[in-house]
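Notes to self after the Tuesday call (sharing in case useful).
The group wants a holo model before anyone commits to mutagenesis around the pocket. I volunteered. Ligand is zinc ion. Logging inputs and output together so the record is complete.
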Amino acid sequence: MVKLDLLIKNGTIITATDTLHADVGIKDEKVVKIAENLEANSDTRIVDARDMYVFPGAIDVHVHFQLPFGGTISADDFENGTKAAAMGGVTTVLDFAIQQKGHPILEAVKARRKEADGKVCIDYGLHAAITDWNPQTQAEIKQVIDYGIPTFKMFMIYKEQGWMADDGMLFQALEETKKFGGMIGVHAESVDILDMLIDRYAQEKEKWGAYAHTLSRPDYTESEAVQRAIKWAEVTGGRLYIVHMSAGESAQYVHDARARGVHVYAETCPQYLLLDDSVFKGDNGHLYATCPQIKKKKDGTRLWQGLINGEIQVVATDTCTFDTKQKAMWKGDFRKIPFGLPGVETMFPLLYTEGVGKGRFSLTHLIRLASTNPAKIFGMYPQKGEIAVGSDADLVVFDPEKKLTLRAKDLQTNCDWSPFEGWKLKGYPHTTISRGKIVVADGKFVGECGYGQFLKRQAVKELDI
Ligand code: URP
Ligand code: ZN
Ligand code: ZN
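Result:
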């Protein structure tokens, strides 16, 4: 008989495809048995999951911990950011290594790993952000994929930061990654129109305050760029992923392209699903500034529809935490607000309450959006995003009856405010397990800094979503 390290008893297991009442046996960081009435030995630790769900851990494929941005550094570092993730039922995060112009991509990857390794409490991986395209970058694509980073990010804006990729770079990167099963994620916004509108509203910045952030970023500043990036994916045959999609019209373009057979995937985030641009009208409107902008109610409605019908395959957060002191740097000028929101800790419980709790989608669909689809699209499946023999024991024991009102002061994040302050939740993670180790027990963090590992991901040849 296999001597189990950990045994989760009496729970209801939910995967992307199945619901079953069974115990989960864990040994050496992996799931080794799934069956009814599994037996423990004297050393086996037991978690009683009666009346609770057992989910594969959520995967947030879009976080920016300790990112230098907007004249400051995002407030959740790799240690606290991954603690916050675990508290919210997230067992894997993907952050970004941003190439410096004129330097190799792998130099940025190694520098980012130095910041994360030994600090992270759960497993993490990196995307490589391409900011420069030359023969050396082109030659590096295969090396970076072989290193365990098959996904790249390109920003269609952020000229001043030196991060912007033009269409020629995007086109060539799609061609090159296609050869090796890589994928290009894009931050899609129309830089020239955006810059023109920002200049226009800057003339009247006192009149509009934080609302100018919204006025200068209407939906077409995103959807035009989404449409353009899709065109380059279509003609190159490359695989494209739209990050943090915020506009209803963008969802329609993704829908149409997928119907034509273009290899395009999309992510949206809780802030675009649950908030609308009225948040910018309050006294603290500047706190909500993120990029791309939170759009109108109708956009949120269209994004929910996209999540439900499979046009949008992933929910992630774009976590980039700035506290009220950092946000105060704007001093009335909407161009100077550090853009970004906290989110990794609240994503999964919000999605449960608002998605499953409100009858928008099923439990299995929740797991597809928050765990299995991200694992498949980003080359981690079935190691992550699954509950099966041989998969990493990354699990969440989730209490569907737990009622809670979100308060920034109760959260692990270093943020002193929350975009979802006062939101009422029903359902919250009870226990989080990362590679067989309990890191959150009964809602308290019990993990350790440095336990998490860098995750080598695989190139993806075929995708069934
Ligand atoms: O406002 C945001 N999202 N800041 C982080 C950088 C990005 O665009 O993802
Ligand atoms: Zn972005
Ligand atoms: Zn981002």
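Two things stood out.
The longest strand covers residues 395-405.
The chain has two domains: 6-55+392-402+421-445, 58-377.
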